[in-house]
Description:
The protein has helices spanning 15-19, 25-35, 39-58, 67-75, 91-149, and strands at 154-159, 165-171, 176-182, 191-199, 202-209, 213-216, 226-233, 246-249. A hairpin with a 4-residue loop joins β2 and β3 (176-182). The radius of gyration is 30 Å and the shape is globular. The chain contains 5 helices and 8 strands; from the N terminus they run αααααββββββββ. The strands form 2 sheets. A 4-stranded antiparallel beta sheet has the order 1-2-3-6, covered by helices on one side. A 4-stranded antiparallel beta sheet has the order 5-4-7-8, with no helix packed on it. By secondary structure, the chain is of the alpha+beta class. It has 3 domains: 11-58, no CATH class; 67-144; 154-249. The relative contact order is 0.11.
Amino acid sequence: MKPHHESPPDPHALTAAHALDALDADEREAFTAHLAHCAACRRETAEFAATAARLASVTAQAPPAPMKQQVLRAVDGVRQLPPQVSGTVPALLRTRAGRRLPRLVVAASLAVAAALAGLAVQQHREGERAAQRAQQARQQLQDIGAVLAAPDTRTVRGRASNGAHALVAVSPRQDRAVFTAAGLPAAGNGRTYQLWLNRDGAMRPAGFIDRDGTVLVEGATGDARALGLTLDPAGGSPRPTTPPLLLLSLPA
């Protein structure tokens, strides 16, 4: 009996994997040839590649402000030593100044030490927060990449009533989805774009997106029928407060 050979994957389902450089050599060669005559896949691949670049840039950490400048600013607030006076100085004044000088030096040293300690604590906390944000961004990129590169991922496109283009990619095996938006108008002060999963006719909160890009949909998608997008108050709402700008049926 002849060995069973798997049929080649649908090239239209390989756009995300190609953008993430997750194809093997044969798949990459076949998909590159497919891109030459498929405008939809070229556009979708470019969108996924741009999203991956934006997510990767989030992990970059800016260095803290130079310590030298911070210390110099702190020293400006330290009491200065008495000015040197030319000529003869009365003995009583010299004696008093001599007694005060060590105290002023100690006070200045303690002030600078305290300033340095405070700056060190502040920079340590800022460093911890930056590291935490970078770790969260790396985890988000990893989770999104896992969904986009999954072999069972299916996508569906739509256009919101405000003109934004949207794409939902769902991996039934992972029970997860990602949402991509392009051309999304600014939400405005006190407003935010909120995602929803429609389960048995009820809309359940599924995360937020505040600008063009891709986000991981919060919550399992196995029992969800559709994904919606609304413009709600900043911070989110337990239920939609406006009609959906977009409601896409999730691919099976």
